[in-house]
Amino acid sequence: MNAAYLCTAYRRVCRALPALAATMASMTAGAHSASDAYLTLTGPTLNGPTPTGLRAATAAPGDQTVLHAQWDIALRDLDFVLQLDDNGDGDIVWGELRRHQTDIARYAYPHLHWRGDGRSCRMAPTGQMVDDHADGAYASLMFDVICPGKPARLRLDYQLFFAIDPSHRAIVVFRSADNVATSVLSPDKARIDLPL
Amino acid sequence: MTVLRQALDQAPTSLVAADRLARAYIDFGRELGDAHYAGYAEAVLSPWLAQSPVPPIALIDEATILQYRHQFGEARDQLRRALAQDAHNAQAWLTLATIDMVQGDYPSAVHDCSQVAASGGSVIGIACTGNLRSYLGQAQQSLVLLTQIAGDAPSLTVSFRAWVQGLLAETAERLGEWSQAEDHYRKALALTPKDNYLLVAYADFLLDRGRPAEVLSLLRDSSQSDTAFLRLALAKEALHSPDVAQYVWIMGARFEALAQRGSDYFGREQVRFALGLQHDPQRALDLAQRNWEVQRAPWDARVLLEAAQAARQPQAAVPVLAFIHETRLQDPVIESLARQLEGQMKSSEVSQR
Which CATH number characterizes residue B308's domain? Predict the structure, then answer.
């Protein structure tokens, strides 16, 4: 089972069971036994039909390549660095999270670096929401990765949390038109090259 | 912890400050059953772990983290490096003794405990030996030794007293002294009410005694811990609770997430999940056999015997049965399972003739 499917499955079940979600996957700061983040990358699909259920990336004007990304980061981990739980009651409530949305983005994004065939790509945030996983609530950062030209290879350098928790892992799922590839990033393997 | 963090920020080159903060993270994470704190501790130690030679304190803290993650081989390596520099480090010997006991290497643990006593004094040495004897068919002597040091209680730290009470509870269980075991669990939890290890051990006791409803209230605030969550799910199953499927699903998803990140902390728990909640004896047996290669504590023996029985493969239990005979492990549940499996093997031999 790949991570993207897992996230979707978490979401589906947690939303179908509101009572359980309230007890087990509420927006609590204390959750789960290890630190994981899930980064799902979609596209680019420049040719051919759009796979069902996926937002396909498209070639943007001005000869750019765009990929869509969703980055799920545990609130529990963000709380450790950003103190999201303003009133210190152990729960991160929606109001607290909304107040800290900008802080989360400002903290998280600089820990990702993208290059397409050696040239820098930029990130353009498209939204932020809360997502329930089996082990608690996650902040979902949605963004586009915009690379100049039509690179054949996309390089990701990932550094989130590694300096404060070397046991953090990023589970990267890359969904291209005809393939799903999963990879786990760690301090020893913080870089990955994805063929586009 | 904030104070310790500030102390390190003010003296970032102080190994003493780093050790204090790392230890606080490790202990807090253990108490909660939350592995994040082991990661934070590792980050605090990282400047010293990069030195050559690594200071013994940093090696021992790192070994404790690795032991917590069940990376026993790597933990042993770090302890050997620490002891090469400081042969009389009681903490290093005690950690090594714990690993040897978890892995069922009792001759080595005997040596480790004698070194613990020589380097750390008689109380900690007796705790080590008392714990060890409970695995070697000497649970009654173990009870006497542990009771003796529990009597010294006022001079000892709360966490040490709770640890001794927990050992007493488990030793009483080895002897089938259920009310005595419960009394010690309650005493231990009165000292450290949030200790995940104690909560889970007491929950197992309650599940064994057919009191699953009490597990739900005991672990009400502990669902963030994977080990506690498994006991909640097992209690739900025992109670035929309508929401058991949801618990099973979440537990499965958590194990899946751990597998994805390449962590394999919970061999014993995965066996119990496969057997008691997924009702898949063959998978449980496969997992139990893999777990037995890594861990050989009484619960590891027990889950393999239970899986072998459920899968109707008594032969698969042979290595564990040999281990039990060799070590003379006492435990009413394990002894009963062992007798049944040996009976099944004999009757299948007869029928094959």
Answer: 1.25.40
